[in-house]
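Dear colleagues,

As part of the handover before I leave the project, I'm documenting each prediction I ran so the next person doesn't have to rerun anything. This entry is a single chain, and its sequence is reproduced below.
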Amino acid sequence: MAAEKFETSLKKLEEVVRKLEGGSLSLDDSIKAFEEGVRHAGFCAKKLDEAERKVEVLIKQRDGSFRKEPFTTDDDE
């Protein structure tokens, strides 16, 4: 799954959820689908965490220049 993109994994996760919500899978198939969904959810969460760490906010200074500041959320305070 390492070469997979976030968007692809998210679409696969959505497909798994639809299958599980449909209720037509056997117990064994439901468990397999659930395990696949957990893998995709973990991959997506990891990619989102990586993206959040990379985000920087540009702050315009009085002299017109920009200064970079680390991205922070309300949870960081």
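The first helix runs from residue 6 to 22. The chain is about 60% helix and 15% strand.

All the best with the project,
I.
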